[in-house]
Protein: GapN: NADP-dependent glycerinaldehyde-3-phsophate dehydrogenase
Amino acid sequence: NGEIHSWDGPRQEVFSPVWLADDTGQAPFFIGEYPLLTETEAFQALDAAVDAYDHGRGMWPTLSVAERIDHMERFIFRMIEVKDRVVRFLMWEVGKSLQDSEKEFDRTIKYINDTLEALKDLDRISSSFTIEEDIIGQIRRAPMGVVLCMGPFNYPLNETFTTLIPALVMGNTVILKPPKHGALLYAPLLAAFCDVFPKGVINIIYGEGKKMIPPLMATGKINVLGLIGTSKTANALKKQHPNPNRLRCVLGLEAKNPAIVLKGADLDLAVRECVLGCLSFNGQRCTALKILFVEASIADAFLERFAKAINALPFGMPWQEGVFVTPVAEKGKTDYLQELVSDAIIKGAKVVNADGATTLGSFFFPAVLYPVHHQMRVYHEEQFGPVIPVLSFDSISEPVEYMINSSYGQQVSIFGSDPDQIARLIDPLVNQVCRVNINSQCQRGPDTFPFTGRKDSAEGTLSVSDALRVFSIRTLVAAKKTGLNKQ
Ligand code: G3H
Structure:
């Protein structure tokens, strides 16, 4: 809240998942610790945010857009100064390869810069007038109040910032709860937050979300919940709010995005995109392809190439150059993934790309399961890891039915070469998801594109410009022409 508080209370020790390779004899590697705040300190942070907002009369919400942009530009400058430390924490905390950790950092800087450009455009629109009958109208975007920002472990910096940055630039004050995996990387940024932003505008609370956040929600003082995480967390937090009608939710949640590979598809392209879609950051992305439907007549050819491509992926430690498969980030995850594989094998699937062990310490070697059917857990569950269920289909209605019956509705990929066939498929699919990708993997970017989903996958739309709207409210100033002095 404008100051870095010293802390002599309990702390959470953090061990890197990169070294949780117990059964290879490697000791867990201690990388740091963060404070475990109590409810009382979390309340103090909330009070600081509420005071700084001061019902919209505080310094930050009343600054001009140009002044807020000036603050953000100074923040970018300070952030770049600590890039190396942030990137290294990111790599150690979640096992993301060094090159992908750097990409996440650079993408975040670009996201902030793009947001500032979009903000200038929005401000131009807001400063214009429209005249209808005898009324002059001006639409302004006004802040909402206090925003709680919570991001996920897979993009602890970038995705958290896709709620933090738009919330801040629109004049809100913020409570930020860093993810459990990805909390340490905020340490190098603390001084920049404190030096650049007025007191109480951004309040970072470290600790156990389950303990701290529900009481904060129960105060009714949080106006917007910006959460990239699970629907379980989102629903639990919404329930705490005493007046849900006064809580706006901007949520990025689970997904089970399918790829549909049609006869006639360029198989090299389909394989390349499916490998990236299924396995970038070990499949630990909400946008990952999590189930593949392949037309029966090309299933064998596709699987042969797909398995070969996966087996050739370089695996290793995140700092090794060119590495693709790295350790999974969450403790206990390899056991869960192994359960999914065993369940599918018992029910008739095979791991088609390997016949040996799939785990080694915190590594989980990608496992392609075929043929998968609806009685297997991996058919329904969001694996969020490197297990790839594959089914063959005769009729296109099969993957469409799958999507209709799914609890999720984020994205889909179609691979094919016949424009008419693809066009026929797009119509039923746009009614199930919020992005249809043709001959390309599912993904969030470019960040100027809208990012959202149906059903349990999302609420509200994030993107450079949409986010400015979801973290603000449209207010009309309407003046009767006749009463105004003509000068
Ligand atoms: O985990 C969900 C992220 O929004 C995925 O983003 O598609 O850029 O990897 P990405």
